[in-house]
Design brief:
The complex is a heterodimer of chains A (about 110) and B (about 120). Chain A has no helices and 11 strands. Chain A has strands spanning about 5, 10-15, 20-25, 35-40, 45-50, 55-60, 60-65, 70-75, 85-90, 100-105, 105-110. In chain B, about 0% of the residues lie in helices and about 55% in strands. The chains are: A mainly beta (about 110), B mainly beta (about 120).
Chain lengths: ~110, ~120
């Protein structure tokens, strides 16, 4: 059972544009929502994370928007750059106890120069 | 220095063989993990160890046997390899088990191809 659904599967954005990736979750016990960035041949690396007690978190050009009632969260990349081209994964976990990250299916983002 | 290192990075082997992947972390973390990334890039947890104790075992075939000789190392041994085992296996670690969303750090992956 896929507990975190991510869309779109792939995304092409022009340099300077806004990239938006969406995720939806089912388990209301999830209380930690990170986004991971993965470059080809590398492991995933934490980009930004949010807890459900806030609706938005911003770090530089990256913003997470969180809608608890809709059980949805999204990643916005402002002023997208070619160096942002990577695969992005949303994830969710319950922070108390066994920290088991449940990942979305991933979005391959390509930023055209 | 690499925080989470795993070897080998690439492994090509025949069906039926037994192989091991080794992982070491120098972050001083208590918890280590194995994740599997399939051909569609889907990431799924396989195992988690906390201070050498198995905490998570996600319905993985018992041909897969993790072993943690100490809290800085978590190895993965796979018996009787099958074609479907071809994937990228990621080792990872995090600071504490009972935590508040501690960051999970991933290694660069071990690309296993079974032919």
């Amino acid at each position: 059972q896929q507990q975190v659904k991510q869309s779109p599967q792939s995304l092409i954005v022009q340099k300077g544009g806004i990239s938006i990736i969406n995720c939806a979750y089912e388990n209301t016990a999830f209380d930690y929502f990170p986004w991971y960035q993965q470059f080809p041949g590398k492991g995933p690396a934490l980009l930004i994370a949010i807890r459900p007690d806030v609706s938005e978190k911003k770090e530089g050009r990256f913003t997470i928007s969180f809608n608890k009632s809709a059980k949805q969260f999204s990643l916005h990349i402002m002023d997208s750059q070619p160096g942002d081209s990577a695969t992005y994964f949303c994830a969710a976990s319950i922070t108390w106890g066994a920290q088991k990250l449940v990942f979305g299916q991933g979005t391959r983002l390509t930023i055209n120069p | 220095d690499t925080a989470v290192s795993q070897t080998p990075k690439y492994l090509v082997t025949q069906m039926g063989n037994d192989k091991s992947i080794k992982c070491e972390q120098n972050l001083g973390h208590d918890t280590m993990y194995w994740y599997k990334q399939d051909s569609k890039k889907f990431l799924k947890i396989m195992f988690s160890y906390n201070n050498k104790e198995l905490i998570i075992n996600e319905t993985v075939p018992n041909r897969f046997s993790p072993k943690s000789p100490d809290k800085a190392h978590l190895n993965l041994h796979i018996n009787s390899l099958e074609l479907g085992d071809s994937a990228v296996y990621f080792c990872a670690s995090s600071q504490a088990f009972f935590s508040s969303g501690n960051t999970i750090y991933f290694g660069e992956g071990s690309w296993l191809t079974v032919v």
